[in-house]
Specification:
Blueprint: E1 2-5, H1 8-11, E2 15-20, E3 23-31, H2 34-39, E4 49-57, E5 78-82
Antiparallel strand pairs: 1-2, 2-3, 3-4, 4-5
């Protein structure tokens, strides 16, 4: 997957936008904090990804740039992965 969009705001989050098969995908990770480690014995270290969501987007939610000028609509799709429980 290519990483076609970078903006200052998105770099401050555990997030990025990929382009795959003509669709733009917003990836957002939640990473473990010290408090998460204390509450969940399955987690091993701070910074470990605990869950992840990927959804298709037409615009960057951080800066508002339209990512694909040729598309005006999309069918909402997402995937959610919970890595905090094995």
């Amino acid at each position: 997957m290519a990483n076609p969009h970078q903006c200052k705001s998105i770099r401050q989050a555990e997030a990025w936008i990929d382009k795959d098969e003509g669709e733009y995908w917003l990836n957002i990770n939640h990473v473990a904090t010290q408090q998460d480690l204390e509450e969940n014995s399955f987690l091993e270290e701070e910074g470990q990804t605990t869950d992840s969501v990927v959804l298709n987007v037409l615009y960057c939610p951080y800066c508002g740039v339209k990512l694909d000028e040729s598309r005006y609509e999309t069918i909402p799709t997402f995937t959610f992965h919970d890595f905090s429980k094995w």
